[in-house]
Amino acid sequence: MDLDRALRISAAGMQAQSTRLRVVAENLANRDSTAETAGGDPYRRKTVTFRNRMDRALGAPTLQVTRVGRAQGDFPVRHDPSHPAADARGYVRMPNVDSLVETMDMREAQRSYTANLSVLEVTRGMLTRTIEALRG
């Protein structure tokens, strides 16, 4: 039944976007997490990689999270000689989390999740009306 396929495709999209939201929440929660020792690495931003995967049971492509990785790149530094993680020159390496980027990523994930939820609700409504029509 095609309505069942629509429900499963929407559920796959919602699952992928919920993973994305969880990673954004982790990044925002750790945006001030520095190293515990001098010269150590602070929290490194996590990223989510998606891909379309052909679901043979459904006969349709679905969205899937393939990897939760770590963003590469330099850490911003802040001069704070009193910080326990400061190096010999007094600089502390800060996490490479940008709140603006995370907020934009969160908004995009929210919109995609909401769109998939709308499809799910419409499909469920169609199924309910079909069952009621068949009952007579």
TrEMBL record:
The keyword Magnesium does not apply. The gene is flgC. The basal body constitutes a major portion of the flagellar organelle and consists of four rings (L,P,S, and M) mounted on a central rod. The rod consists of about 26 subunits of FlgG in the distal portion, and FlgB, FlgC and FlgF are thought to build up the proximal portion of the rod with about 6 subunits each. Residues 89-131 form the Flagellar basal-body/hook protein C-terminal domain. This is Flagellar basal-body rod protein FlgC. It holds the Pfam family Flg_bb_rod. It comes from the Bacteria. It is found in: Bacterial flagellum basal body. Residues 7-34 form the Flagellar basal body rod protein N-terminal domain. The lineage of its organism: Bacteria, Pseudomonadati, Pseudomonadota, Alphaproteobacteria, Acetobacterales. It comes from Roseomonas fluvialis. Belongs to the flagella basal body rod proteins family. Signal peptide: none annotated. Keywords: Bacterial flagellum, Cell projection, Cilium, Flagellum.
